[in-house]
Design goal:
The chain is of the alpha+beta class. The radius of gyration is 18 Å and the shape is elongated. Strand 1 and strand 2 form a beta hairpin. Monomer. Binds 30S ribosomal subunits, but not 50S ribosomal subunits or 70S ribosomes.
Length: 120
C-alpha cells in the first residue's frame, strides 16, 4: 500500500505542477514551486508543500491567497487528469526547508568571509 501511496503522491505533484504553469493565470502564484505532496491514508486529503523564490512577507501572503483562490480550479483539473475514485482535497503549506537551507548558506558564506578577513 505504501508503494501505491508514493506513486499517487508523485503523480499529484507532477499534475499540479503542470496545472499551475499552464492553467492558472494568477500573477500571485507565478513564483510558486511545489516541492512535495503528502496524502492521507484514504487519499481524501493531499497536503501540498510549496516554496517561493522570495522571502518577502507580502509576496508570501499574496501567494497563499492566490493558491487558496485557485484551489477549486486546481482540484477540478486534477480530477480530469487523474484516474482516481475521489480527488483529494488540497491543503497548501509553505515548505520551510528552502528557507532553512538558504539561511545555512548565508551563515556559511559569512563564516567564510570572516575567515578570509582574519587571514588578511
Amino acid at each position: 500500500m505504501k508503494h501505491r501511496k508514493g506513486r499517487v503522491e508523485g503523480e499529484i505533484l507532477r499534475e499540479l505542477t503542470k496545472i499551475i504553469r499552464k492553467n492558472i493565470r494568477d500573477p500571485r502564484v507565478s513564483n510558486v514551486t511545489f516541492t512535495a505532496v503528502e496524502c492521507s491514508n484514504d487519499f481524501s486529503y493531499a497536503t501540498v508543500y510549496y516554496s517561493l523564490l522570495t522571502e518577502d512577507e507580502q509576496a508570501q501572503k499574496e501567494a497563499e491567497a492566490g493558491l487558496e483562490k485557485a484551489k477549486g480550479t486546481m482540484r477540478h483539473l486534477l480530477g480530469q487528469s487523474l484516474t482516481m475514485y475521489k480527488v483529494p482535497e488540497l491543503i497548501f503549506k509553505r515548505d520551510q526547508s528552502v528557507i532553512y537551507g538558504s539561511k545555512i548558506d548565508r551563515l556559511l558564506a559569512d563564516l567564510k568571509k570572516q575567515e578570509q578577513d582574519r587571514q588578511n
